[in-house]
């Protein structure tokens, strides 16, 4: 256990079914002219964007909508949003949507105050000075962006996918309302839920995990193990009636997802995320599906380096010990219809060399914090085996 650490996470987490109703009041604490960052699709279709606008306008706020956030958000998109925010004099930003949208909204809030290319700040060649205040409203339970200081972006030119890390983009408030998550398609739920599990497992395994983070990460693993398949099966059956759905299970997975975001804020991610980012940066694949392809291969090669941690994870997921941990994870992936390979997701054998080099460029810290430090050759072999 780490005996010296600092644990800093100043976000007001507002959690619970129906809590989206407080959006207007909450945002009004921080500004008068709000930019709502969202995507082109689901928040419009579900009516959530209109509902959010009405709640904000009811408090007398002036609303500008930036609806260009895309999956695996590009740095250029965030810069475009930030330019509009400056032009309109926005003084607060709301991120309304899934992980990509929240990350884009964080980068918009940051770039509104820091005009140079955002990757200059990501690579540390420039130092940021603040960001517009942010309020986040997740509509998927996976990324946990509502509980951390990261905004994962992709550089349009180099395809580097890397996090902006700045305490200025920790949300002032995050409104986590499980009801908003229930409209996700089953396939999306499976991949984001698995992402959340990976955040908790990776933080727990990280060499820099502190004792507070450890206990939260383990509870996150347990909650997902006990509830994710249950709500996935509800989605597959096509249930939409909230009075029939198991809202306790939905709440548990949503909470675990926020936990996942919080724990990686402290302990970072490790090898699975470290190797997934080059794959989704290069081929724009779905993050959770990339993780599903990589995790079993990576973990089989890691058990020896941390058997006691694999034993604990296995038990949290209903298994026995370190020996069955990967089997238990694979069984969970099967039940989520998430057994896949990198090639099935669109990665090519010829990408392996670039991804290997890129992993050591964009994920150096994560690879160092993994219980087993892999060489370049080992990373290549992992990619090839996961293809
Ligand atoms: Zn992730």
Automatic annotation (TrEMBL):
It holds the Pfam family Fe-ADH. The keyword Oxidoreductase applies. InterPro entries: ADH_Fe/GldA (IPR001670), ADH_Fe_C (IPR056798), Alcohol_dehydrogenase_Fe (IPR039697). Residues 190-386 form the Fe-containing alcohol dehydrogenase-like C-terminal domain. Residues 10-178 form the Alcohol dehydrogenase iron-type/glycerol dehydrogenase GldA domain. Keywords: Oxidoreductase. Belongs to the iron-containing alcohol dehydrogenase family. PANTHER family: ALCOHOL DEHYDROGENASE, ALCOHOL DEHYDROGENASE 4. This is Iron-containing alcohol dehydrogenase. It comes from Claveliimonas monacensis.
């Amino acid at each position: 256990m780490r005996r010296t650490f600092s644990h800093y996470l100043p976000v007001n987490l507002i959690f619970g079914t129906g809590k989206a109703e407080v959006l207007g009041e909450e945002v009004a604490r921080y500004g008068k002219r709000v930019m709502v960052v969202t995507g082109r699709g689901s928040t419009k279709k579900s009516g959530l964007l209109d509902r959010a606008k009405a709640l904000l306008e009811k408090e007398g706020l002036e609303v500008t909508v930036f609806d260009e956030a895309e999956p695996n958000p590009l740095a250029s998109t965030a810069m475009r949003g930030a330019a509009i925010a400056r032009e309109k004099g926005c003084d607060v930003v709301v991120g309304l949507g899934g992980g990509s949208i929240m990350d884009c909204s964080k980068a918009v809030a940051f770039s509104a105050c820091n005009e140079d290319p955002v990757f200059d700040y990501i690579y540390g060649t420039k130092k940021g000075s603040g960001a517009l205040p942010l309020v986040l409203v997740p509509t998927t339970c996976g990324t946990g962006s509502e509980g951390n200081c990261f905004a994962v972006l992709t550089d349009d030119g180099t395809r580097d996918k890397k996090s902006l890390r700045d305490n200025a983009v920790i949300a002032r408030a995050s409104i986590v309302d499980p009801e908003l998550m229930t409209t996700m398609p089953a396939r999306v739920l499976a991949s984001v839920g698995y992402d959340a599990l990976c955040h908790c497992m990776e933080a727990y395994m990280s060499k820099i995990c502190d004792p507070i983070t450890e206990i939260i990460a383990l509870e996150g693993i347990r909650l997902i193990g006990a509830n994710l398949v249950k709500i996935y099966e509800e989605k597959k059956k096509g249930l939409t009636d909230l009075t029939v759905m198991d809202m306790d299970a939905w709440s548990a997975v949503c909470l675990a997802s926020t936990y996942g975001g919080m724990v990686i804020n402290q302990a970072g991610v490790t090898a699975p995320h470290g190797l997934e980012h080059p794959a989704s940066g290069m081929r724009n694949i779905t993050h959770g599906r990339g993780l599903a392809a990589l995790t079993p291969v990576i973990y089989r090669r890691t058990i020896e380096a941390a058997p006691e941690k694999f034993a604990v994870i296995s038990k949290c997921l209903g298994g026995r010990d370190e020996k069955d941990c990967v089997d238990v994870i694979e069984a969970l992936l099967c039940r989520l219809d998430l057994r896949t390979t990198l090639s099935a997701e669109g990665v090519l054998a010829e990408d392996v060399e670039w991804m290997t080099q890129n992993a050591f460029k964009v994920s150096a810290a994560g690879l160092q914090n993994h219980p087993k430090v892999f060489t370049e050759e080992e990373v290549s072999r992992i990619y090839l085996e996961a293809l």
